[in-house]
Amino acid sequence: MLKDATMPIFSPDRHACAPSYVKLTKQPIAGGTYRPLANDEDSNACAPSALSGHHSSKLYTQKSAIHATSDNTSIFISGAGTLPCLLEMVSSGSVSKAEIDNNEQIASSELQPQQPTEQPLNEAVSVCKKAAHTTAKTLSAAGHAVAKAAKTTVHAIHVAVTAVKTAWHTFTNFKAVQLIIKFFRKAYGPWKKRMRFSYAFYAIVFTLLTSAEVIFLQWGVYSEPTYDKGDEVDQTTKILNSVAGQVTKFVSQMWLEQKSLFLVNFVGLGLIYLALIFVTNRFWIATLLFGTAITAFGVANSIKIQLRNEPIIPADFTFISGGDAGNIASFIPDNSQQFVENAVTVVIWIIAICLLLFLLDRRKCFIYCSWRKPFASAKNTVGTFSRALAAVVSVVILASYATNLGTGGSWSNMWAAKQGYTPTLFDAAEDARNNGPATTFLSLTKAPTMDKPEGYSKQKMQAISKKYSKLANSINKSRTQQLTDSTAIMILSETFADPTRLPDITFDEDPIPNIRNIMGTTTSGTMLSPGYGGGTANIEYQALTGLSLANFSDSMIVPYQQLVPTQSNPYSFNQIWTQKYGESGSEAVHPYYQSMYLRNTNYKKFGFSHLYSLDSATPVEHTEKIGESPYVSDSSTYQDVLDLIKNQKNPEFLQVVTMQNHMPYSNYYEAEDVLQSSVTDDTPDDEHSAINVFSTGLKYTDQATLDFLSQLNQINKPITVIFYGDHLPGIYLKEEQNPDDSFLLHETDYFIWSNDASPSANVKLDDSEAAFSSSNYFMSSAAEHMNAKISPYLALLTKLHEEIPAISRVISNRGGIGLGTATYLQSDGTVTDSTSMSKTQKQLLADYKLVQYDQTSGKNYLKESDFMSVD
């Protein structure tokens, strides 16, 4: 019995004959009462009907502890369920209904005064029971419905399967079908006994396909030479200089010059082929993958060489991972469409032949193995272990070969050097021509950022910080403005370069009269570009960070793809504004796709609050185009910038990269609007047409830029514009062949301009300071143009610009300017080298390299100082 619980019972001592009851199923104790009943062996002698004669018997509640054992049989009756329990007893014949009614009346009359709180509890329990009962009933109904639906579905499936089987049997019973079945049954025996191709046959296919791919890749990096009409060139020379002649020379130099560069490329591709074979364990499937992938690589490599004078490098695959493969395909020029279609045909043949040979070859596994029963026999154990080991070893060897090929003193580098490998990675296109595209690509899989400068240490960097802090303080004494009091707009104008600068090309109409006039009235000059035909991201990187590609290792070709993604907190000049104004301090506009060159992730690292592009969360609003051009016009891009300026609450740094004049240069514009140029008779028609279309695009840029600056003049906020072209387009095919034109193919134009509301309006720095520059100097030149105070870092760049007007890692076009990895210009525009510099120039250059190393590869000691801070 529960302690302190009141439980009405039938007291055995009130009856002459204690009745005996059948023990009911034990109920949970929940607000109910136990009723101990007498346990009399003679249950028949004292029937439940005898209870009717004892109306005076009292129901009472006994309070006592529940013992583990009891001599009396007890029955638990819920306080809310007394009647159902007794009714159950009635139904079993143990108690009559009259007795139950009588006892309930007695229990009710006696319990009511003693248990005033039991009634609500009983009602709550009753409600809960009803709810549970309703829920159970609902679930039961739902279960029945689901079961019925499942049964119906199974039946429908069974009917459908039966119908299909019947139709199949009907079909196979046709005589014609029976003949076909009999034919294949007879042919199955010989088919099952078909031969397994030998490993010697595999070796022959491996050698031939790998050699063919090496030759195809090499063929793609050459171009047919052109000759002036007056040139007297014999037929033998023409043959040797042709694409076929250059490829033949590349292969035959193994015997003629003892330079086995063909072998180096064969080994590189062969290791890739072997890794595919051992990983897939299917020779023909691996052959299909290898042939398709390398052929596609060769096509893309050839087109990129043609357009940008640069081969495919590992960092280019970030375009694919970023989802830009389709966008890149849109850059394929019209004259390469046939080449692409022919390559697709070749790939289809490769796939078809490999699949056919895969079916004919009874040897499915290159190395026998059984994954289902790997240890069932000695043969299975050895095969499974060998298959796994071969896959792992082949991948490890390939990775080791590739990652060490570009590292001097490593095993693969030393072996390749013995075969004649001489890397010239500062000019990747030339390296591909000399050493082979496969070797160039593999040597760039692991790209060291910079060689550690001599004397690099924390103490040295602290000394540099103090040194240029003093220089900054000295410069700032004469300067009265703050950079952050003005909005700075840095505009990279795609492929903007004066087309009249190149010889043998003249125009009846000046393509850029307005910009030419602006350059005559404000700070302006010629920029030395590291690229020709491409390299936009590199020039942009230099302008935003103040760092130069000339200081990086030769294998660091595209920092946006190889370096910035691995940095935790890279520095860029927009942070001067974000340090003062927070997130509203800098924004970027690029009317194309945000993941190109990983700008979306890189700009976040630089601290830009927004990048407005075609596919950004908040896209550019103005996307109008000119004629049939696929690219957003410059006037639309400028309108987006104007909208940002009008809505800004504080001065900010705006980074703008246009797209209007991006290659290719097809017939986008109305014929009457296209500028006409005069060229020499031996200029190819394709080149002449591309020059005209490109120059027409510049005419539109020229007018849009004038309109943009005029609107900025109407804004009563100080604004300074840094405008520059990144590189020339790769359309000057004839000039590429002439080393005398190399320097001209790396000259673009820039200017720094301030609106009428700026203190620096109408300022023009002397040509001795501005005539030549490189993009890493633009921010220091803008600060000088604005008479603005600078940081120690900008003080270093200011002083360096005075001593070395332009620094660039020039990717030369088949010879010409620049030895090694860097090109330096003197104040008169002549090329110099580091060995002939003055002591001051050498010291400045050494300090510059230490600062760049500290920011990109070192410990970033300068971050702990105020080296980047503008007072």
Model description:
The structure is a single chain. By secondary structure, the protein is of the alpha/beta class. The chain has 29 helices and 17 strands. Strands 9-8-10-5-12-13-7-14 form an eight-stranded mixed sheet, with helices on both faces. Strands 15-16-17 form a three-stranded antiparallel sheet, with no helix packed on it. It has a two-stranded antiparallel ribbon with strand order 1-3. α18 crosses α24. The longest helix is centred in the first third of the chain and has 55 residues.
Low-confidence stretches: 1-22, 29-35, 37-98, 106-117, 813-820
DSSP strand (E) fraction?
A: 5-15%
Say how many strands there are: 17
Q: Average pLDDT value?
A: 83
Summed up, the helix count is 29
How would a crystallographer describe the biggest sheet? 8 strands, mixed
Strand order of the largest sheet: 9-8-10-5-12-13-7-14
| Helix proportion range | 40-55%
Structural class: alpha/beta
**Global geometry:** globular
Tell me the Rg in angstroms.
Answer: 44 Å
**Through-space gap between termini:** 87 Å
Write the layout of secondary structure elements.
Blueprint: E1 8-10, E2 33-37, E3 59-61, E4 73-77, H1 82-91, H2 97-114, H3 118-172, H4 175-192, H5 199-220, H6 235-241, H7 243-256, H8 261-280, H9 283-308, H10 317-321, H11 325-329, H12 337-360, H13 378-405, H14 411-418, H15 428-435, H16 437-443, H17 458-476, E5 487-493, E6 505-507, H18 513-521, E7 523-528, H19 536-545, H20 559-562, H21 575-581, E8 586-589, H22 599-606, E9 611-612, H23 634-647, E10 653-657, E11 677-679, H24 685-713, E12 719-725, H25 733-736, E13 747-754, H26 767-770, E14 772-773, H27 778-786, H28 792-803, E15 806-808, E16 823-825, E17 831-832, H29 839-856
